[in-house]
Every structure is written in structure tokens, then in C-alpha cells.
């Protein structure tokens, strides 16, 4: 009797090892997984990298005197892009003091972040994430010093190309202890409407 139990125990172990508890063959599962060629995955990844490089190479950053500056390498600019095809459910940034999220907005000329005539001022702004609504159009964002009378002179400007879907994020690297307002400007045709699904800003 003991030998019979031992035999069936071995059979049970082999069955679970080969098929798992749900009865699906692990060999079958491996075959399904292998049905997507690694070459295809590599091609998709290469296409995304090429697209990101094309977009990143068109990002322009300007200082307070509107002179173009190059604070980031091409690889760093590519790292600021998360295209729709590679988005996950994970939030890229989770720990900051305060956040402001705009919700959907659009503009054909310009618009200030935060609503109203000149938006709202944000103290010590750091990271901004812009999510496009559909395919992005060409636009720029300028950070302007807060003054008693509202937005003052430009502190920094970023020009963003069109033709991408997904998210773009970057650090403003502005002078600490100051407040700034953000102006979105349509850099394309006047007949074009720039649509933003959401802009989130971390500050203070």
C-alpha cells in the first residue's frame, strides 16, 4: 500500500510540474510566449527609439534673454518622452510636496496655466508632465517671473515639436525661492488648435 501511495505521489508531482495547478501545459504556455518573435519586439523598440530621437532633437530650450541653451544631452531629452506605445499604469513621479493638475485645455493662440487671465503663480516649480490629447501640435511653454503686476520677464522657455502622442516631462531648474507663471503658446499655424489632455506641475 505504501508503495502505491508513493507511486501516485510521484505522478501527482510530475503532473503539477508539467501542467501547473490549472492543468495548462507549461510547454504550451512557453510556446505561446515564444510565438512573438524577439526580432519583432526588437524592431518595435528600435522604431520607438528612432521616433523619440527625432522628436527630442527638435526640442529647443531658451534662457531669460531668449538665447537657445543646451542644458541636456540628446539622450536626456529622449528620457523626457514617454510615447503612448510605451506607457504603463505606473505614475512616473510619486513623491513631491504639492501638485497642480490642469485637466483638459486647448488654445489657438496662448493660454496661462491655472486658468484666468494670467493663470496662477507657483512657488519653486520643479517637474512638469504634459500629456498630449491625440497627436501633439507644435507649442512652447515659457516660465515667467511673478511680479506685483502679474507675469514679468521670461525666466526660461521650452519649444516642443508636434507629431508625438504620450507624455513629455522635464525639470524647469529655475531659481529657488521665486514664484513663476507658465504661458503655453501655439507655435504653429493660427488655424491650428493645440490640445492638451492634462498638465501636472510639482512645486513648492
Provide keyphrases for this structure.
six-stranded antiparallel beta sheet; single chain; 25% helix; Jelly Rolls; 13 strands; 204 residues; alpha+beta; globular
Q: In a nutshell, what does this entry contain?
A:
The protein has 204 residues and is an alpha+beta fold.
Order of helices and strands: HHHEEHEEEEEEEEEEE
Number of structural domains: 2
Given the structure, what is the number of helices?
A: 4
Give Rg in angstroms: 25 Å
Tell me the name of the CATH class of the largest domain. Answer: Mainly Beta
| Fraction of residues in helix | 25-40%
Estimate the global geometry from the Cα principal axes.
Answer: globular
Oligomeric composition of the shown chains: single chain
Give the N-terminus to C-terminus distance in angstroms.
Answer: 75 Å
Low-confidence stretches: 2-36
- Indicate the CATH topology of the largest domain: Jelly Rolls
Largest sheet properties: 7 strands, antiparallel
Number of strands: 13
Structure report:
With 204 residues, this protein is an alpha+beta fold. It has 2 domains: 7-34, no CATH class; 60-203, Jelly Rolls (Sandwich), CATH 2.60.120. 25% of the residues lie in helices and 34% in strands. It has 4 helices and 13 strands. β9 (139-147) and β10 form a beta hairpin. It is globular. The protein starts with a helix and ends with a strand.
